[in-house]
Design brief:
Order of helices and strands: EHEEEHEHEHEHHEEHH
Bound molecules: S-adenosyl-L-homocysteine
Radius of gyration: 23 Å
Helix content: 25-40%
Number of strands: 9
Shape: elongated
Number of helices: 8
Strand order of the largest sheet: 2-1-6-5-7
Structural class: alpha/beta
Length: 245
Amino acid sequence: MTWQARVMTLFPEAFPGVLGISLAGRALENKTWSCSTYDLRQCGLGRHRAVDDTPFGGGAGMVIRADVADAAFSAVDAPADVPRVFLTPRGTPLRQKDVVRYAGAPGVVLMCGRFEGVDERVLEAHNVEQVSVGDYVLSGGEAAAQVFLDACVRLLPGVMGSDQSGVEESFSDGLLEYPHYTRPAEWQGRKVPDVLLSGNHAAIAAWRQKKAEETTRERRPDLWSAWLARREKNETAAGMSGQAG
Ligand code: SAH
């Protein structure tokens, strides 16, 4: 079954964009997924097909109108079990576990914002989830939509070369991944860590685990404390079941 992405945007020509190349592009060609766009302008009002208006309460910028956005959601008319997502810096940050959930759905409807965003009432009325791709502000939702879709598409069956690469990477166990090295073994006087050339798989695994932990502790204190808490919980649980047995 084809995983269907339906994208509402003022710039349909931006799609599939970066998703037309490499793994995602090949998966698009062989119909593992599809990417249709819906031009918000089609629902625009009047001779100029206006989609936006000034914000109630005042302030800078423009907002995509409720009636226009509603007409677009209705025109796209996706089945009820397809999640509706509005990309916005106000949203819940997208995490790998969410990506797994979206990839497991029949597809997704994405609304790309422009200007200041979209009238909030439409998002409520259509049960739209609000998702952010990071704590920074983009000029429009199109790049965010492609980030979102890229993360989903690579998890679809058959898209990634080796299944293992999905299991071992950053976030899958709550830690960032260890660093990578390849040939040449010595480059501009810099050597690859000896252990990686040792052929000792247990030692390599231990070194990688240590590096993953160090990197996470330094770069992502938030992930690190969550990981520590989880480990402690697991150790307690293991200790208790040990006592019971
Ligand atoms: N004034 C708004 C930002 C508008 S940016 C605010 O402060 O919340 C214009 C559009 O770009 C948004 O409607 C959204 O669709 C998209 N966008 C910008 N940053 C984003 C992010 N971090 N994640 C997802 N979408 C984003």
